[in-house]
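TA notes, week 10

Several of you asked for a full example with nothing omitted. So below is the full record: structure tokens for the whole chain, then the designed sequence directly under it. When grading your own attempts, check the secondary structure regions first.
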């Protein structure tokens, strides 16, 4: 067991493997649960451990025999009941880091960047020190620089037990500004329930829309439900229509109806149309917002359309060419112009001159299995959905197919790295 006085910095514990007494790994540390107390040092009550299946369970500190930056060893079996945070509990990684505190020596404010925990003579684990970064340039005798880092005793700061919805969200998001939406969604999913909503609501609407499309359904519902109706409607308008429809499917009927009423009529119309289809049909999977152009459109203009930053790669691969009207349901569908073919032709030529008219299509009632087989047979990235009069109703893309074919909780499963796949193939443990 760790000797009394050993300090462990919590940020280093993230991802640390947890072993049972026999030496078998049972999970990894994802957070540390602490009780913040006004008159005594904050007490650590347990660890949040992620076990296979992305399930998070609670490991009481009374069941921990060894804890350091390399491993955690527990006694006996873990209780596999899903961890539920209590109102009196705070997650150090998810909620306490980035918290704004005041230094009691009068030298100004600081952000918490790490926390040290230590085992006392009584066997309890307490927060004893904090690693902070100054957020102002105030001085007390000696010159203090903004951005300076220092380690102070826990009783040298105040405001630890208080927070606001916005506190720390800006700095966390700034540190991950370059992350792709899927990676930022993974980061949000790692946070506690309260912190996840706080950080998500600090995103601007376009970024939040992109991230929501990558989150598990429970997280989507919790975040959207926390937004004011007007803002939630704006975010839904920025999502792909099929993703917005899938999210509304998960909400209570009265809440979904309220949000649809708050959306712009044109955007709501497309989503309502998708809500009418079975989720596992082409109609339920399709998006109503691909690149749709008339045959006389110059190739240069078509290329400009597929360069749109908000356009998913699968939809950017193909231009769908129709007779007016160009909004779904369109006029008669004529064919598609493939991205690679557009690059090989003179920019002033009309796209109607290079159409691929021999392309498979599906109807709105086509089942998932049938659509998936067409994608596999023709190496397709996107397929048109037509009605009996050959009007374009929407497009099913390959990412829509994958979303529906993978298990419902696939977004909650850990990602497999190339190293993991190599080790699995070779039959050797990774790490």
């Amino acid at each position: 067991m760790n000797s009394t006085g050993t300090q462990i910095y919590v940020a280093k514990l993230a991802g640390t493997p947890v072993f049972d007494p026999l030496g078998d790994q049972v999970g990894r540390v994802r957070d540390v649960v602490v009780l913040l107390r006004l008159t005594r040092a904050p007490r650590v009550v347990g660890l949040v451990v992620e076990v296979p299946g992305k399930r998070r369970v609670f490991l009481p500190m009374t069941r921990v025999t060894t804890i350091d930056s390399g491993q955690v060893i527990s006694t006996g079996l873990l209780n596999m009941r899903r961890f539920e945070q209590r109102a009196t509990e705070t997650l150090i990684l998810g909620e306490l880091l980035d918290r704004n505190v005041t230094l009691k020596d009068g030298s100004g404010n600081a952000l918490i960047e790490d926390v040290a925990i230590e085992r006392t003579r009584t066997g309890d684990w307490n927060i004893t020190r904090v690693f902070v970064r100054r957020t102002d340039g105030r001085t007390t005798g000696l010159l203090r620089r903004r951005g300076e880092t220092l380690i102070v005793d826990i009783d040298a700061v105040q405001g630890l037990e208080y927070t606001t919805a916005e506190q720390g969200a800006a700095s966390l998001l700034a540190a991950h500004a370059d992350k792709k939406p899927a990676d930022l969604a993974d980061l949000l999913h790692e946070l506690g329930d309260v912190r996840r909503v706080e950080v998500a609501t600090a995103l601007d609407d376009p970024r939040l829309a992109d991230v929501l499309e990558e989150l598990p359904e429970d997280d989507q519902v919790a975040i959207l439900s926390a937004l004011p109706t007007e803002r939630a409607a704006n975010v839904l308008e920025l999502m792909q229509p099929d993703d917005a429809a899938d999210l509304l499917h998960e909400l209570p009927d009265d809440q979904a109806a309220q949000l649809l009423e708050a959306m712009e009529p044109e955007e709501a119309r497309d989503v309502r149309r998708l809500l009418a289809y079975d989720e596992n049909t082409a109609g339920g999977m399709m998006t109503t917002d691909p690149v749709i152009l008339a045959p006389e459109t110059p190739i240069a203009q078509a290329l400009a359309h597929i360069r749109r930053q908000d356009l998913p790669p699968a939809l950017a691969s193909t231009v769908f060419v129709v007779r007016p009207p160009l909004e779904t349901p369109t006029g008669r569908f004529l064919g598609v112009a493939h991205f690679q073919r557009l690059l090989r032709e003179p920019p002033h030529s009309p796209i109607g001159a290079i159409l691929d008219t021999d392309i498979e299509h599906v109807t709105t009632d086509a089942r998932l299995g049938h659509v998936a087989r067409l994608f596999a047979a023709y190496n397709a990235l996107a397929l048109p959905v037509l009605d009996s009069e050959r009007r374009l109703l929407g497009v099913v893309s390959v990412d829509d197919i994958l979303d529906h074919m993978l298990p419902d909780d696939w977004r909650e499963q850990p990602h497999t790295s190339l190293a993991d796949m190599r080790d699995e193939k070779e039959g050797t443990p990774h790490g």
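The chain has 17 helices and 18 strands. Use that as a sanity check on your answer.
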